[in-house]
Amino acid sequence: MTASQRFVDLEHAARELAAVVPVRVDGRIDFVLALGDKASSIAGVVAQQMECDCLVLPIARGDAPMIGTVPDCAGRSVMVVDRGVETGQAAMLAAGALREAGVARLLLAVPVCPRQAEWTLAGAYDDIIALQRPLGRRSLQWHFIAPLE
Hints:
Shape: globular
Number of helices: 4
Strand order of the largest sheet: 2-1-5-6-7
Distance between the termini: 23 Å
CATH architecture: 3-Layer(aba) Sandwich
CATH class: Alpha Beta
CATH topology: Rossmann fold
Radius of gyration: 14 Å
Mean pLDDT: 92
Strand content: 15-25%
Helix content: 25-40%
Structural class: alpha/beta
């Protein structure tokens, strides 16, 4: 898939991401963490491919996103999955909470991550897996043909 192509829907993005993740991940992932309920459809497919559990990290999105209760991840390898990144604010907040909780290895897997956001997130995550890395930031909806819920 090229950067100019769009995903049909979240299911399409999930399948594409799940196909790439095992190739990019070196070692075992203890669990996949969906960044909010809306990301659980993608995270579930990725977790199934990685043969690990999928948990949801509650998040209130908006101007000042807030993370809910973080699962026990001390000394564990965790992959955060979201529907995509626009600004990176939610992913950065999740990384901070997980690092504070003692995660040993932290990866981010998303269908879309603008390069500017990726540069910012690179210091917070051990690896970032993104199918599309556009130069400029656009609404996440722009990358999908079907409306995001």
